[in-house]
């Protein structure tokens, strides 16, 4: 009986100590917010009470247990305030940014550009899935698979899985070349004026590939088979990060 009482007392003491440690960690944690959506090499750092309405920021955490200016890579937008506490909206992760010459095109810009480009066919097709890559990845694929065919041009590579509405076929006037032109125009309109000449002069026309139905299911299966992620954790990649992922979609591109 005495032994059981001692064990229970020790368990209570351990729980109290753990709670005290957690309280200390919470009390000593501070958070700063760093502006990331700028072209400055050393963006300005602000505390949470210094953020401005409508501005985009990257969350940076510092706390006494070892994290110092740790970046989660999440970019948020300050959409409002509740008293003095900012309301924020998640925008994207920095890892999904596209950057060929430092332009840093975000996924919200890509999504809106795709929506704008497909608007005229909105009654005929819907976009089931998309992924985009930088031309570096395509060049690496061509260099490894088709020697001598790599490209030195800089451009975005789009893979679109389109689903016809009420028909088995895509509209005859919907083609990758026309779509690429409209996508690029919309992307360009989202960039600051001083960056537009550099983009126009250095970045070539995007390449758009329509892929077969079910192609992104194959991409999902490939990622799950080659990672530790479970189906519950899986999220379709908006930006392709490896040559192997690119190859899965290229091999399923429509002629």
- Summarize the main sheet: 5 strands, antiparallel
Report the β-strand fraction as a percent range: 15-25%
Q: Helical proportion?
A: 25-40%
Oligomer: single chain
- The SSE order reads HEEEEEHEHEHHEHH
* Rg, Cα atoms, Å: 24 Å
> How far apart are the first and last residues' alpha carbons, in Å?
79 Å
Helical element count? 7
Low-pLDDT segments = 23-39
Number of strands: 8
What is the global morphology? globular
**Main structural class:** alpha+beta
User: What is the spatial order of strands in the main beta sheet?
Assistant: 2-1-3-4-5
Mean pLDDT: 80
Attribute tags:
255 residues; alpha+beta; 5-stranded antiparallel beta sheet; 3-stranded mixed beta sheet; globular; acid-amino acid ligase activity
Short description:
Residues 151-238 form the GH3 C-terminal domain. The chain is an alpha+beta fold. It has helices at 2-28, 107-117, 135-145, 176-189, 196-202, 215-225, 243-250; strands spanning 30-34, 45-47, 56-62, 70-82, 85-93, 125-134, 156-164, 207-210.
Molecular structure report:
The protein is an alpha+beta fold and 255 residues long. The protein contains seven helices and eight strands, in the order αβββββαβαβααβαα. It has helices at residues 2-28, 107-117, 135-145, 176-189, 196-202, 215-225, 243-250; strands spanning 30-34, 45-47, 56-62, 70-82, 85-93, 125-134, 156-164, 207-210. The strands form two sheets. The chain has a five-stranded antiparallel β-sheet with strand order 2-1-3-4-5, with no helix packed on it. Strands 6-7-8 form a three-stranded mixed β-sheet, sandwiched between helices. The longest helix has 27 residues, at 2-28. The chain is globular. Mean pLDDT is 80; it is low at 23-39. One of its GO terms (molecular function) is acid-amino acid ligase activity. Residues 40-93 form the GH3 middle domain. Residues 151-238 form the GH3 C-terminal domain. It comes from Holothuria leucospilota (Black long sea cucumber). This is Indole-3-acetic acid-amido synthetase GH3.17.
């Amino acid at each position: 009986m005495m032994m059981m009482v001692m064990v229970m007392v020790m368990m209570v003491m351990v729980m109290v100590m753990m709670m005290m440690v957690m309280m200390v960690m919470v009390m000593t944690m501070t958070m700063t917010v760093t502006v990331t959506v700028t072209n400055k090499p050393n963006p300005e750092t602000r505390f949470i009470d210094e953020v401005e309405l409508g501005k985009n920021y990257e969350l940076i955490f510092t706390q006494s247990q070892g994290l110092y200016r740790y970046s989660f890579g999440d970019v948020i937008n300050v959409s409002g305030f509740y008293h003095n506490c900012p309301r924020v909206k998640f925008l994207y992760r920095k890892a999904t940014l596209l950057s060929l010459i430092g332009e840093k095109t975000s996924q919200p810009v890509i999504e809106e550009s795709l929506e704008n480009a497909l608007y005229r066919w909105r009654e005929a097709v819907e976009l089931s899935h998309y992924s985009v890559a930088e031309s570096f990845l395509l060049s690496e694929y061509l260099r490894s698979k088709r020697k001598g065919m790599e490209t030195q041009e800089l451009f975005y590579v789009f893979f679109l899985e389109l689903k016809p509405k009420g028909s088995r076929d895509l509209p005859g006037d919907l083609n990758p070349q026309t779509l690429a032109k409209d996508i690029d125009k919309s992307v360009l309109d989202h960039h600051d004026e001083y960056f537009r000449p550099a983009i126009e002069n250095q970045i070539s026309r995007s390449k758009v590939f329509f892929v077969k139905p079910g192609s992104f299911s194959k991409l999902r299966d490939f990622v799950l088979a080659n990672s530790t992620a479970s189906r519950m954790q899986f999220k379709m990649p908006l930006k392709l990060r490896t040559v192997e992922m690119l190859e899965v979609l290229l091999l399923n591109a429509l002629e």
